Amino acid sequence: MNQRTAITAFRLLVLAGCVTPAGWLVWQWYFGDLGAVPGEAVVHFTGKTGLTLLLVTIAFSPAFRVTGWVGFMAARRQIGLWAFFWLVAHMLAWMGLDQYWDWPWIRREMIELPYIRYGVAALALLVPLALTSLRRVQKAMGYRAWHWLHRLIYVSAALGVTHFWILTRADYMLPLIFVAVLTGLIVFRIVDAMLHRR
Amino acid sequence: MARYRYPRIPESEVTPRELFESRRRLLRGGLALGAAAVAPGLLWSREAQAWQGLLEERLATDLPSSELAGGESTTSFQDTTTYNNFYEFGTGKRDPEIYGHRLETDPWSLTIEGDVDKAGTFALEDVLAGQTLEERIYRHRCVEAWSKVIPWVGFPLADLVKRHGPTSRAKYVVFESIHDPDNLRGQRRSIIDWPYREVLRIDEAMHPLTLLAVGLYGEVMPNQSGAPIRLVVPWKYGFKSIKSVVRIALVEERPLSSWEERNPDEYGFYANVNPTVDHPRWTQARERRIGESGRRETLMFNGYGEEVAHLYAGMDLQQHY
Fold this sequence. Notes:
The structure holds two protein chains of two kinds. Chain A is mainly α. In chain A, about 85% of the residues lie in helices and about 0% in strands. Chain A contains nine helices and no strands. The radius of gyration of chain A is 18 Å and the shape is globular. The model of chain A has no long low-confidence stretch (mean pLDDT about 95). Chain B is an alpha+beta fold. Chain B has one domain (about 10-310): Sulfite Oxidase, Chain A, domain 2 (Alpha-Beta Complex). Chain B has ten helices and 13 strands. Chain B has helices at about 15-40, 40-45, 50-60, 75-80, 95-100, 125-130, 155-165, 200-205, 260, 305-310; strands spanning about 65-70, 110-115, 120-125, 135-140, 145-155, 170-175, 195-200, 210-215, 220, 230, 245-250, 285-290, 295. The longest helix of chain B has 22 residues, at about 15-40. The N and C termini of chain B lie far apart (about 45 Å). The relative contact order of chain B is 0.15. Residues about 1-10 and about 35-45 of chain B have low confidence and may be disordered. The interface between A and B is medium-sized, with 25 and 29 residues.
């Protein structure tokens, strides 16, 4: 398999990985397997999926550094946009299926509840990243500026993990895994930058 | 065809109760047949079941029933038994339903000890023998801001406590849930300090609304709901209503309850339902009634203020939350 085919295959794999959870969710909904409060199940599932994809997006660059395989860089924009999509779905699910579009309450919870504040901030930070993901914009901005802007993904992920941590009641297994992965990725980034400083 | 649609299913699409149950009977029947084929001994051993058969007989008769939820309609049996917090089985809402069968409930015994005249360990059938069962329809409010209306079957805790002769030293009543990590997968990790413990002040425990429940919807208590015997304190957040009780002790000094020990800032000793005192991380002013869309306003003491407010007269409920 030549390089091009491998990259295309990888991109398709990433696509499948990002879309399959939606299929699973629809399936569960259709067969009534989301339990007594399906709206809540959708909110939780979209949130976990979005946050996971956000961390995977961040992992793509270290994966490239370690393996030297360009496929990771070729698929990074795609997976990042999918993470954004899932997190937007998460927010819309919360607004519609959890808060029933009750705008005064949505506003109030956004202002008053710390975990909602962190979640909103995490998503807001991703908006400029998604907007500048068009290649034309990327080119117009210049790689340096674009690169700096896109480091916001670390801040967004940290806020997202904090959001998940705060709303957890007792079992911290999954939030701990997220913290560990994000910490690992940040440490790798810093060490890598120090080692390769010119 | 979809079995469930959001947010509300038309009545015509709800599986009729009889059908739902006949399917369960069929499944059970199938299992029994299978068991009969391989090991007849298994079937005979069912006769040894101590309390379940007796309770089923009593549930089949007309029990006195009191409606104490302000006429609000009851949550469906299905929703009540498929959306539960019972961390002994896992922290997911469906874990108790999925893994509940691993709890062995028959035979079951209850230890009653501490500052009582008649201490000891008693078989559940003996505990139930002298009690008049009744149905009580109560609101049930979880600290996570969801709620249900549940027709419990049980008897006042006070009846049991009186039977065992509490001494004058008894100031608090401590409850302990079953501890069995081999069968209860949630107990293999220390999410909380197992076994689950809860504590009531003696006057709260003796209050006529405080129930020991052995059933719901006219049926033997399902495992995920706290079989075989659980506490129900309708004016407090659900976590006070400890499930699958194995031990009740009357004591002079107040021990910490499990949630209080885990996080005292968030789960106070009293845990009275109070819309004016928020959980540090979310509002308690509203609640999601399971099976409904939208939110309801949460009622002070979960709507039982007339009956219980006097228990807390003179106390600052912002401080003693």
